[in-house]
């Protein structure tokens, strides 16, 4: 059974960069046709895809106005982790951030989520 | 970007009664490989989402058979044959056929 666990600061200052890491166990980020993904959920609201990256380098980021090309996702096969960097954050980026495994257009495994608050 | 529209957004249901959630996409969801990547997720209060259904009608392992998915083209439905107390939560459809993948707004199921 694949398990994912997010880690990183729970508080980020406005204009700074949000950095989160997802550690994968029970499976390898360097095997298979999976896209390692980030999704977020503002408190009390719905789900928004941020982007994904495969170990082979296939990548896609959501360029909608709320994310505006601020996203970088990387995969580290040596640590069996993948990471999210979201630059120039504002209060609108306050959300629960989930890491997940995208298996051919569907998420089959989710992390438990981590709340990141943007505030000075 | 594909827009996913769910209805209703709020669904009060009596225990033991059926429930149905509609999800409509603004574009057809058939992928180039012939599959339709339409998924349904359940998010119980305070939990991560959990996949119930993938590729329109395939139930995940461990999901009770009272949950079923159907549909084609742009119209999809999640049905619960007899609602139980543990089904309380928010249900999301999600299309994985066209980037960016998009979730519906969510349907909050509550017990009357």
Can you give a write-up of this model?
The complex is a heterodimer of chains A (120) and B (112). With 120 residues, chain A is mostly beta strands. Chain A has strands at residues 3-7, 11-12, 18-25, 35-41, 48-53, 59-61, 71-76, 81-86, 95-102, 107-110, 114-118. In chain A, strands 2, 4, 5, 6, 9, 10 and 11 form a seven-stranded mixed β-sheet that branches. Chain A has a four-stranded antiparallel β-sheet with strand order 1-3-8-7, with no helix packed on it. In chain A, a hairpin with a 4-residue loop joins strand 7 and strand 8. In chain B, strands 2, 4, 5, 6, 9, 10 and 11 form a seven-stranded mixed β-sheet that branches. The chains are: A mainly beta (120), B mainly beta (112). Chains A and B meet through strand 10 of A and strand 5, strand 9 and strand 10 of B.
Task: Describe the secondary-structure layout.
The complex is a heterodimer of chains A (120) and B (112).
Chain A: E1 3-7, E2 11-12, E3 18-25, E4 35-41, E5 48-53, E6 59-61, E7 71-76, E8 81-86, E9 95-102, E10 107-110, E11 114-118
Parallel strand pairs in A: 2-11
Antiparallel strand pairs in A: 1-3, 3-8, 4-5, 4-9, 5-6, 7-8, 9-10, 9-11
Chain B: E1 4-7, E2 10-13, E3 19-25, E4 38-43, E5 50-54, E6 58-59, E7 67-72, E8 75-80, E9 89-95, E10 102-103, E11 107-111
Parallel strand pairs in B: 2-11
Antiparallel strand pairs in B: 1-3, 3-8, 4-5, 4-9, 5-6, 7-8, 9-10, 9-11
Number of strands of chain B: 11
Distance between the ends of chain B = 36 Å
Number of helices of chain B: 0
Bulk shape of chain A: globular
- What is the molecular shape of chain B? globular
Rg of chain B (CA only): 13 Å
| Low-confidence regions of chain A | none
Q: Tell me what portion of residues of chain A adopts beta-strand conformation.
A: over 45%
Range of helix content of chain A: under 10%
Radius of gyration of chain A: 13 Å
Overall pLDDT of chain A? 93
